[in-house]
Amino acid sequence: MASLISRLGHCVTPNALRSYLAEFISTFLYVFAAVGSAVSSQKFTAGNVAGPDSSSLVAVAIANAFALSVAVFVSANISGGHVNPAVTFGMAVGGHISIPMSIMYWISQMLASVMACLVIKVATVGQQIPTHGIIPSEMTGFGASVLEGVMTFVLVYTVYAAADKKRGCFGVFGPLAVGLIAGANILASGPFTGGSMNPAHSFGSAVVGGSFKNHAVYWVGPLIGAAIAGLLYDNVVFPAHSSPQDPLTVTADGRV
């Protein structure tokens, strides 16, 4: 029991608690903007009998790109700027964060997502919160999972590359690169899966929106894609990449 307590002690250090708070704030910021942009687009196209057009997809993609860039930037030096359970899972698989801390990250991220969606629903006088899961009839759940998995693979691979210290001064563009690839993926997949790549985003909107239809797609695909990205980058492409000074590495005493 004492050994277990000592191994879990790093999860409750002041630095670890600050990391959880940073993840909560940054995830709230991202989901608020991402879901808010979808609600705004929905409001503008409410009277359009033809339904949403491509301009709404572009607007949502840009909002996601900007919001994710900022969310990663503001928390990168505290928690690593995961803002996404899939990213946290990819980092855990790569040994950059312990399993207990990754669970706490997940809790912070999902609570933040639910809170952001609740704030939007209350502030907009009960506007319907858009949920992921509306998959075209010609697609299967397996195909949607593959699409989400591939996009999350690219996203997490970009996160690993963006945090690579060998890039020197170019590393400052890391958060922007992460946001841009997320926006690009949404443009590529918006009409098919909604371009989530983030289980917390999908979870929060599902809870507040009241629909868990096809929800497994937004966990299975992203988690598998994230795990493959982490293993591939650290063990195949750049096997010497991992180091204790990695900004996305959480040390044993809880410091990031």
TrEMBL record:
Q: Primary place of residence? A: membrane
Report one GO cellular component. membrane
- Tell me which species this is from: Oldenlandia corymbosa var. corymbosa
Q: Which domain of life is it from?
A: Eukaryota
The transmembrane residues are 20-39, 59-83, 142-163, 170-188, 216-233
Q: What is this protein called?
A: OLC1v1027174C1
- Bilayer topology annotation: Multi-pass membrane protein
**Any keyword Transmembrane?**
yes
Q: Name one GO molecular function term.
A: water channel activity
What keywords are assigned to this protein?
Membrane, Repeat, Transmembrane, Transmembrane helix, Transport
Which subcellular locations apply to this protein? Membrane
Query: Family assignment?
Result: Belongs to the MIP/aquaporin (TC 1.A.8) family. TIP (TC 1.A.8.10) subfamily.
